[in-house]
Design goal:
2 copies of one chain form a homodimer. The first copy, chain A, contains 10 helices and 12 strands. By secondary structure, chain A is of the alpha+beta class. The longest helix of chain A is centred in the N-terminal third of the chain and has 19 residues. In chain A, helix 1 packs parallel to helix 3 and helix 2 packs parallel to helix 3. In chain A, strand 4, helix 3 and strand 5 form a beta-alpha-beta unit. The two termini of chain A are 41 Å apart.
Amino acid sequence: MGEFSLIQAVFTRRAAAMLATQPDSLVALGIGDDCALLNRLSSDEQMAISTDMFVEGTHFFPGVAARDIGHKALAVNLSDLAAMGAKPIGFTLALALPQADESFLHELANGLFELAQIHHCPLIGGDTTRGPLSICITVFGRVKRQQALRRGAARVGQRLWVSGQLGGAALAVQQLYANQTPPATALASLLRPAPQVFLGLALNGLASSAIDLSDGLYGDLRHIATASQVNVEIDLNRLPIDPLLEGLPFDAAMALALCGGDDYQLAFTCDDSASQTVSALSQSLQLRLTPIGKVVAKSAAPQVICLGPGAVPLSATWHQQLSAYEHF
Amino acid sequence: MGEFSLIQAVFTRRAAAMLATQPDSLVALGIGDDCALLNRLSSDEQMAISTDMFVEGTHFFPGVAARDIGHKALAVNLSDLAAMGAKPIGFTLALALPQADESFLHELANGLFELAQIHHCPLIGGDTTRGPLSICITVFGRVKRQQALRRGAARVGQRLWVSGQLGGAALAVQQLYANQTPPATALASLLRPAPQVFLGLALNGLASSAIDLSDGLYGDLRHIATASQVNVEIDLNRLPIDPLLEGLPFDAAMALALCGGDDYQLAFTCDDSASQTVSALSQSLQLRLTPIGKVVAKSAAPQVICLGPGAVPLSATWHQQLSAYEHF
């Protein structure tokens, strides 16, 4: 484990340096003891916690730059905090590595710490071990009690919004599997998604439910529909698809935009009365926010209904084909 | 991911069932949303957090029973809480699996949940993914502010104690590498260590520093010595070695007891005035607690000094050989 001690030293030093620049942090003790210690939250807060495992071959293609791996491993976790409307406190990192490759490790750390710095989310604990390359991050955030954006809080009549644009990451995945070189912007969507932490914070008290798009809009909206026991209707003509999808046939573009994961945008529901505020938010965050549908009815068999050309509901067969595509 | 949904359903159902039986829990929201939610601590508490990655081939021999894997993956994390004197709140589980083997998964869950139940530590969040078998657990606990048992809090003149007995797990590892069948008690020490959570809690306010023995007594005491900037002296004649080691030559037994990891006992330092209380604790917990040495002096070059037969300090060469054995 001698070589691994060196790795730990790199991460520990960078973590300590970053922690020292976070004066209003809840972190009472960072890396170096049996546990990290956090001070308690304010009286109106809860702690939000999420964990994700990131494995070579499953979550990223072999050969992806270490810096991108570091960025994305933290981004997907921060995205879960964003979907809850939580503000980052810190994260732990458990790392399995086949060997101690110093330049790989430094670049991995660069990707992690650059994103951590943006979101004031210091590394507070870790573990390094020998094994097939995988990264497990657990992230902690703080959120106002009663204001966490729950999947089960969508209400009938609310408008459904989505941030950013959809399908670029899925296009990159499709092309990489076909041994093609994706356009740079699609590759950037896949490799360096920006977790919508600032949006999540702004939606506190404004939106009722939210989810981050990790599996794809269609599947993730089904999670909201199921948890809230409602039907959700989306108008596909309004989807903010990535410009790269615009030349594709309708069904192909929709498959990518609806079933492609890795967008890490937020979908959320708001009362109609909040629409102007949401639009103003779009301006201030310089982030596209698009109303794409609504919560239409309570339902014991919740579903997501897609409206196609002419705003006409697409057939049951069309929806079934979409589900089949999802499992591909 | 269809088969993996079934796995998640098994863990989610068991987690929810267990959570329902923890009425005074801090857990406001368990598995099923983007994040888990915890209520805030009491005013005199801090949160302790630790994470560990557990990889097949590195941390456990291929073919080890799934139930034992589940037990140990959680045990090593709970052991970190114990070493801080923290009371478990809950844990997250990220699991990579090469395939969805239902009976393996049920047994893994059995091992995890049986231990979780003992320590009232519910599963509150998770992630399942395809990949080489590995388990990453992050565990959360609560500890009285100012009473966390820090590695750096050993004071000159304090007595050094260790719980349980040492070297059984190391003997099992040695024999397994030699393709021998270890005695059942040694195997149990290796596969099913009991994290000393109750001891850790009882040491709150009694001990000043503590560490759990994951790397081996000698190396772990060096962590205490370094963090506290002190020299620590241990009398090897007093080490509570596993009875299985008693027939071995002195050096061989000491190598196992001092450098073998996986014991997950606690070493801790207490003022002399606390000795009677510690002895009473041993009675009430039905757990052997042995005074094995003391904190002898402040030191800018902290070391652990071993006293051999006749309580005479062993040579520098002897200590160097021990260090070499550690890296083996």
